[in-house]
Amino acid sequence: TKKMERKRVVVFGYDLTDSRQEVQIAALAGGALFCSLGFAFLQEKVTHIPGFKHYEFMTFLTTVTFTLCGFAERLLTNDAPRKAPLLDYAKLSLFTMGGMYFTNWSLNYLNYTTRIVFKSSKVVPVMLVGVVMQGRRYSKLEYASAFVLVTGIALFTLGDAGEAPRFEARGIILILLGVIFDAITANYEEKSFFHGKNCSPAEVMTYASLFGVASSFTTMVFNGSIFPAVNYAIEFPQVVYWTATFATLGYASSLFILLLIKTFGATNAEIVKSLRKVLSIVISFVVFTKPFTTMHGLGFFLFTLSTLMGIQIKRTKQLMKMKSTPMPIQMNIK
């Protein structure tokens, strides 16, 4: 009897294919959590540097780091040649940069925890844009989960509005714009790069970020913010290496998640992503001391409930997909 062929699992050049399944999932899930929590911690730490308001500069440094990480990954994995036209990547970069720019700008007016909660609501506009752009249909449970999530976000935001030292309504508008741009990005990537041209995630990240570097740099030059940002970075150099570090961790986290999906399925990856969101909020409140009100508690509860509903939805979809896949016919030869 032939042994079932195992999926190849390579993490940063280290081959885990022959390791036990428990070791593989621990390495991938642990790596994803470590990198994503490190990303959240360092990004919030940058916002606490005295007088930091240079979010355009943060966006520029992030896109530079993503581009370098993408090029390095493509070089190591021999991911060539490019499959999608540069014009498509120029269009994509407008959406990715819009999401990053408005999200980072909103941190002038919102607590970092509110940013995490709002960014997690991306599923709602993704659903709406998916209906419009791709004609998708969603179940009642998916709409119920979205409603619970929106309610939780509203309560969490009310908690911040009453108690947070840094809260302005314009921050909500900015983060909503960021989430909408992220939703358009997700649908555009899926439709134009992954389904149509079968591009690798590394290629998409590399070229979208490369155009992002050009557009963010041009924006800073034209609005005159580049010289104040450079002077600030000279005075506080940690803004450069902390941003480069959290961007690298963010890139690595996305690689771990993609490997989890490829090796153990979308449901297990969704559990890790959901745990990451919840832990990011908890760590933010513990490490960077903030008031925690009843509204925060109720909002956090509904947020967690919606997250669990999302995991169940993924599990149900995966089971339905497995049932609809025809089993291979086996010949009984005696």
Structural summary, described in words:
The protein is mainly α. It is 76% helix and 1% strand. The protein has twelve helices and two strands; from the N terminus they run E-E-H-H-H-H-H-H-H-H-H-H-H-H. It has a two-stranded antiparallel sheet. Helix 4 runs antiparallel to helix 11 (266-287) and helix 6 packs antiparallel against helix 12 (294-324). The radius of gyration is 21 Å and the shape is globular.
Summarize this entry quickly.
With 334 residues, the protein is mainly α.
Question: What is the topology?
Answer:
Elements: E1 10-11, E2 14-15, H1 21-47, H2 55-76, H3 86-106, H4 112-119, H5 123-134, H6 140-163, H7 169-195, H8 201-223, H9 226-235, H10 238-264, H11 266-287, H12 294-324
Helix pairs in contact: 1-10, 1-11, 2-3, 2-8, 2-10, 3-7, 3-8, 4-11, 5-7, 6-12, 10-11, 11-12
Keywords:
single chain, 334 residues, mainly alpha, two-stranded antiparallel ribbon, 12 helices, 76% helix, disordered C terminus
Contiguous helical run count: 12
Task: Give the integer mean of the pLDDT values.
Answer: 79
Radius of gyration: 21 Å
Parts with pLDDT < 50 across at least 5 consecutive residues: 327-334
Distance between the termini: 16 Å
Helix content: over 70%
